[in-house]
TrEMBL record:
Belongs to the MoaC family. InterPro entries: MoaC (IPR023045), MoaC_bact/euk (IPR047594), MoaC_sf (IPR036522), MoCo_biosynth_MoaA/MoaC (IPR050105), Mopterin_CF_biosynth-C_dom (IPR002820). Pathway: Cofactor biosynthesis; molybdopterin biosynthesis. The active site is at residue 125. GO terms for molecular function: cyclic pyranopterin monophosphate synthase activity. Substrate binds at residues 72-74, 110-111. This is Cyclic pyranopterin monophosphate synthase. It comes from Pseudosulfitobacter pseudonitzschiae. Pfam families: MoaC. It catalyses: (8S)-3',8-cyclo-7,8-dihydroguanosine 5'-triphosphate = cyclic pyranopterin phosphate + diphosphate. The lineage of its organism: Bacteria, Pseudomonadati, Pseudomonadota, Alphaproteobacteria, Rhodobacterales. The keyword Chloroplast does not apply.
Length: 155
């Protein structure tokens, strides 16, 4: 657990001596909802506007603000944030994937997780008037690449 010093105190990890490398992380989650809510969102009939478009922007903003939200995260020069919000009738709901890239000394897993969860929370916020029982779940890192630890892919 690199976020604790020898005395067990929380601290920000010193990345000064780490190599600057290209890094990428992909995180995913989903939001389940009632069929009526799914239809409203997928047909573009939500009273608050374009739910998926606003959620995509919120996810991008969330990635950029990760170090403001997670106390020991380093502020990073993010070079790319992309979100895919895909309606899935089998849930019913929306599957969310967030990809974050940087060239730096530490990875962007937390930024990708924050982007995906912020997008899901935004979908909830925009549709809660018609469906308070929506469920957000499955948040996880799908892919992480770059840096000393190399590549990780979820099974």
């Amino acid at each position: 657990m690199s976020h604790f010093d020898a005395e067990g105190q929380a601290h920000m990890v010193d990345v000064t001596d780490k190599a600057v490398t290209d890094r990428v992380a992909v995180a995913a989650c989903y939001i389940k909802m009632a069929q009526e809510t799914f239809d409203i969102i997928s047909e573009g009939r939500a009273k608050k506007g374009d739910v998926l478009g606003v959620a995509r922007l919120a996810g991008i903003m969330g990635a950029k603000r990760t170090s403001d939200l997670i106390p020991l995260c380093h502020p990073l020069p993010i070079t790319k944030v992309a979100l895919d919000l895909t309606p899935d009738a089998t849930l019913p709901g929306v599957r969310i994937s967030a990809t974050v890239k940087t060239t730096g000394q530490t990875g962007v897993e937390m930024e990708a997780l924050t982007a995906a969860s912020t997008a899901a929370l935004t979908v909830y916020d925009m549709a809660k008037a018609v469906d308070k029982a929506m469920e957000i779940g499955g948040l996880h890192v799908v892919l992480k690449d770059g840096g000393k630890s190399g590549r990780y892919e979820a099974s």
